[in-house]
Each structure stands twice: as C-alpha cells, then as structure tokens.
Amino acid sequence: MRGVAVTGMGLVSAIGNNIVEAHTSLKNGKEGISLPEILKTGLKDLPVGEIKLSNSDISNILQLPDDHSYTRAALIGTLAIKELLSNSGFDNFPEDTGFISGTSIGGIDKTEEHFHNYKDHPEYRKYIQAQHPGFTTEKIAEYFGLKEVVTTISTACSSSANAIMMGARMIESGKLKRVIVGGSDCLTKFTLNGFNSLKILSDQKSKPFDNDRNGLNLGEAAAYIMLEARELIGDKKILGRVSGFGNANDAFHQTASSENGEGAYLAISQAIKKAKLSASEIDFINAHGTGTRNNDLSESVALKRIFGDTVPDFSSTKAFTGHTLGAAGAVEAIFSLLAIQNAEIYPNLNFNSEMAETGLVPVTEFQKKEIRTVLSNSFGFGGNCTSLIFQKDE
Amino acid sequence: MSKIYINGISSVSPQSEDIYENEIPQTYNENILPAINIDYKSLIKPMMLRRMSKAVKMGLYCSKKALQEAGIADPGAILVGTGQGCMQDTEKFMSNMLESEEGLLSPTSFIQSTHNTVAGQIALDLKCKGHNMTFTQNSASFETALLDTVLLFEDEQVQNILVGGVDETSEEFTGFQKLDGQIKEASINNLDLFASGTSGTIISESAAFFTLSSEKNDSTYAEFKDVQIINKVEKSDLISKIEEFLSRNKLRLADIDAVILGRNGDSRFDHYYEDLQQGLFAEKCQVGFKHLVGDNNSVSSYAFWLASKILKEKRISQIFKLNAVNCNAPRNILIYNQYLGRNHGLILLQSH
C-alpha cells in the first residue's frame, strides 16, 4: 500500500472542541460562525469562526501553572494534540517523535496585547519571544516532552498542509519514524484588521464558490495528525494514508491568485502524480474555497484544467469553520480522513448559484458515499499552493 | 541520493564579503548591528526596491548573486529560513492598527508581513513556480531549510535548489529584545564580544543564500553533507549527539578539521560551546563569526557561507579563528549553533 499511514488525530475549531463534536457538526450542517466574543476587537460586526473557550478556560483544562507563557495558538495546539495523544495508542509520545507545526502568525496575539506594556511592565516580557512562530511550536513541544526534531513552517494559509507534506517526506526518507504534523492559528486583531484592509472579509457568512460570494470569514483552529512508518504500526488502526502531495508557486502576485490558477494546477498535478493516480480516480475534493472572488475563481479554473468536464464531487468546509489560515490545511486533512472513514461528504454551505465563469456546483447537502481518495487544496499568500491526497487504507 | 554541491554563495551582513580576503573588520559600538550598505540597485529595479523591506532586499539580492555564480536562472525550489520574518512590515501594520484603534488601514504592510514574503518575492522575481518553503524555527530555521533540501534531492525531482537564511531588525520589536535580556545591556564593541562576560548578545540583520546542485561545476565550493536539528538537549548529551551525527556520515571525530561555533558572548549559554572547545574539539581549529556579524535567528547561514569559503580557499582566515590550532587544507567542517540553549543545529560540509 502506497502512502504514509495516519495513526492519530486531534482537532479544536469553531465547530467543536474535539473530533466527535466537529464530526457531528459536519454531518448536521451546523456551522460555527458567530460575531467575535473572545477576541476583543473594534471590528465587532465581522463574523468569525471562533473557539468559544477563553485562554484561561484552556489553561485550566491543560492544568498549566498560572505564570505560563503559552500563546493562544499554543493553547489550542496543545489541546488538539492532547486529543491526538488519547487516540494514538500512547500514554506519552516516545522521545524520538518529531513535531512539525504550521502557523501563519504564531504568537502575534501576545504582541498586539502587550505592545505598549513591555517597557513599563516587566511581568509581560515573557511574551517578547512569543511573537515568533517557533516559540508557539516549542511551547506545545514542551507540554508533551518532544525534544528532537521540532520545527515550524510558515507559508501563510498553506502552512499546515506543508507541514503534513514535510512530515510525510521525513517518514518516506526514513529520517523520522513517527511525526506529529499539522498547525495552529488563532484569531487576532492583526489578521482581522489585515484581511479587512484588503477588503476580502465578508460581513455575512461566507459563500464559497457562489456566484455572489463576497469574501471570507476568518477562523481559528488547531489540527494535528500523527504519521508513522510502516514498521511501527503493528495492529494499530490506520485512519487513512497520505499518498500524494505537491507544492508549487503561482509566481503571479504577493496576495492575488492568477487567472489561470497556474500554481494550483501545478500543485494538484504533482500530488496526483506522486500518488500514482489518474485524475479520474479522485473521488472527492476538499477545496480551498475561501469565499473570496479571486480565490474561488482561480481554484475553479485550475480544477477545470485538471479534470475537464468531469470535476469530481467537491466542497469547501470554510463556511463551517471560517478560514483558519495556517491551520486550514490540517483541519481539512482531518475532514478528508473523516470522509474516508465514514463514507461521507460534508456540504459546501451557503451556496445558491453557480459561478457564471465556470458553472461548477459543489456538493451542498450531506451525503453518504464511499470515498477512497480525497484531494485537499490549501493556497496562501506569496503564491504558495499545496495539494495533498489522502487515501483509504486498503 | 546524489551528492549536494554548493555552487554559488552570497551574503549580506554587518561585514563586507571581502572580509575573508582583506581581514579588515567593520567595528560597531552598539548592540544592534545593521547590515552594511549594498548596491541593491545593481540587481533590483529601483521601483521595486522602494517597496521592499530590508529582509526582502537582502534575500533577493543574495539569491540573484548566488544563482549567477552557479550559472542557474531558474532553480527547481526556493527554501528560506527566517526566525523572525518580515518584522519591519509587521511592526508598521501593528503600530498603525494600535495607533488608529483599528481604524482605516492601508493593506500594503499587512500584505508584506507574512513570513513567506521573502521566498514569495524571490519566486515572483525569478518566475520560479517550483517548491517554495519558509521555515521559522528560531535558530534552527536555516537548518530546517537545509533539511528540506536533503529531502528534495533524495526525491531526485530537482537539480538545483536555492536555499538561504535571512533575518532583519526593526525598531520596536528588536528593541524589545533589550528589555527581555536577549541583547546586552551595556554597549560593547563587537570585537570584544567573546570577552564581554555579561548576559545577552549583539543582534544583527543578515542574509546568506546558496545554489545547491546535484552536479558540480567550475564554481563549486564544497559538498553539503548533512544537517540535524535538536530542539532541546542536556549538555551532557550533546557530545553523544555530535558523535551520532558524525558516525551517521561515516566520519570519526579525527576526520573533522575545523569547527565553526555560534558563540555569541552570552555568559548564560556560551558554556555549550566552551565545554566543546576545551573538550571534544580541543585539538580542532575553532572558528567563530558572531564577533563580526552579530547574532540572529538565521545567522547560521553566514556560518555556511564561511565554511564554503574555507573549503574553496583551503585556508582559514585569521580574523575568524578562536584558537591557535592550525589547519592546513581543511576537508571536513562541522558547524554547531544554538540560541538561548535551544534549537541546536549541526551542519556538515566537506571539500569536493
């Protein structure tokens, strides 16, 4: 059997604090989009996918000491990996377990909170280093005693998809036998204001792939999966396999995607080639589908270039969770694995009419259907395009 | 897997690249060191330059130089290590946001604030559609880019990879590093770094990029053999980690001719290096660089530049030497670096 085995997973997002909750929400079409309550921002009218647990709620769940310096991304990341640990078959992760985490903004929540405090309040200076992504990764690693290969990928919205790809390659090359991969990003004023300044946030619930879509909703999440080498698996349950991956650069614009979806087209092509599949063997696509005018058109064009007139069933789950930036690839990796395990397709919410340019219609209702092969797309600023392929273990 | 050759190198740092030959150091009497002024216009259009932060400028300039030297126009992949990323634009957007209390903001600095802006801008400039990755793990960022390099060459999909490390400083954010003790309190002269005896270090901005190729050519400097990152290691276990790393590359300690050490004058953490200098590496030619170029999250890329120079020129420039041990015709060089006792990196280079 080709591909690297997935043997554990954990997820915290706006549609649930664990995988069972998220799965229930997906099946029932129950999205997690609300106005911000935990995030203190002036942009109160922009809907977001917020995890309704405060930092102190999560600190209590994790039993952290009062003087800890965990960023919000570290808190939700640790919570997600705690769930992964509970279903991975380990009491504690063995010491040689690697950890590759993707994040777009790391601990910038602490910088924006304390920017003016550092000078006069020494008690907050423990967060000065927290701004940089590696710090958040290290805090999560510390919680679980991971000390060896611990690293961070930051390629904007494809960060965690790239972490999964790198982890799979580390296993394939034999450099690691076991690795936790995924990502974590929290809501911040920085990103909310940033995307708002780009005028790509919707003031309503996002409508991926709809002709009248008018922008994305930001979200926050942490999602991680465990990859293990063949010789370690024994009789463990395999949740699915990472069999294909590809990364390409659109080389078109720092933030906008090209009209012909070149980067996406190349990434998808590489992933299909790596998995030694033909395009017709893809059963389902978990699209990037952010709900912006630009992304959804560019991605649709790329899909038509790959699949012609027979684009497989596809949907974007961003209307459930919001766009969770660096965590999105890993969140959707888990949704893809759930689709494979449970023979289900989760709907693309809020869709009414197909895009005039491409006429593509996503799956809009929950469906039962055997899914053996899922393509999952994640595209980010800097032209970064990543596609992953997950397959049923058979 | 094919061998990996270093076919083009370029660095921008607080020192001129000529320092290796002329041994005339730039001295600084402040603890935040700027990169020296470079004629960026010679390789980057002035209109583009105006919009670029220092990290993008340094990264793109070094990339072009390193590719030119290797005679490569379009590398198969672009891999960048940057611990702190595009801080200048991040700081600009954050200051504006806080000052205006989330008012009307221009998106320009937000757009350029993401950590992968440098790698993205290089791809855009070169029209390079290949694998494009950015690693941000404190002082192991460049090392992770090297790790990805090894994985890509194992896959045999690419022949040439552009890999580099870059970090910039910014006024407020770098200033914060004084408040939490990362930067020395009292100003020192950079050449006195190792004798300072105080906590903290001197922080700098720098970039170094390399064209790594599966084939050697006339410009080849050396062979890049291997890299390892270790997030946390007890000092007592460090020696065995180094020995494991060497033995996995079929080398004994005796095969190592020179070690490049990331000593940064921080009295709290320099013992990691001092113990090796007095113990495991006592007989080796010991080389330092942070007294010249300062410290930052991707400055091990400068050590990689230095090792490449040493192996090509087959001599060790006096100004970088930490001890009196001589080394004629160095063949194997080990680089060891860490920051604040975390994110240890080992890199091995060999003459080709």
Automatic annotation (TrEMBL), chain A:
SMART domains: PKS_KS
Entry keywords, A to Z: Transferase
Residue ranges annotated for the Ketosynthase family 3 (KS3) domain, each copy included: 1-392
One Gene Ontology cellular component annotation held by this UniProt entry: cytosol
One GO BP annotation of this record: fatty acid biosynthetic process
PROSITE patterns: KS3_2
Entry keyword annotation includes Transmembrane helix: no
Domain of life according to the entry: Bacteria
Molecular function terms from GO: 3-oxoacyl-[acyl-carrier-protein] synthase activity
Family under the similarity heading: Belongs to the thiolase-like superfamily. Beta-ketoacyl-ACP synthases family.
PANTHER family the record matches: BETA-KETOACYL SYNTHASE (PTHR11712:SF320), POLYKETIDE SYNTHASE-RELATED (PTHR11712)
Designated name of the protein: 3-oxoacyl-[acyl-carrier-protein] synthase-1
Species lineage: Bacteria, Pseudomonadati, Bacteroidota, Flavobacteriia, Flavobacteriales
From TrEMBL, chain B:
UniProtKB keywords: Transferase
Domain of life: Bacteria
Domain Beta-ketoacyl synthase-like N-terminal: 44-215
One GO MF term attached to the UniProt entry: 3-oxoacyl-[acyl-carrier-protein] synthase activity
Pfam families assigned to the protein according to its UniProt record, in alphabetical order: ketoacyl-synt
Cellular component per GO, a single term: cytosol
InterPro entries attached to this UniProt entry: Beta-ketoacyl_synthase, Ketoacyl_synth_N, Thiolase-like
GO biological process, one term: fatty acid biosynthetic process
Record carries keyword Nucleus: no
UniProt key word Transferase: yes
PANTHER family attached to this UniProt entry: 3-OXOACYL-[ACYL-CARRIER-PROTEIN] SYNTHASE, MITOCHONDRIAL, POLYKETIDE SYNTHASE-RELATED
Protein name: Beta-ketoacyl synthase-like protein
Phylogenetic lineage: Bacteria, Pseudomonadati, Bacteroidota, Flavobacteriia, Flavobacteriales
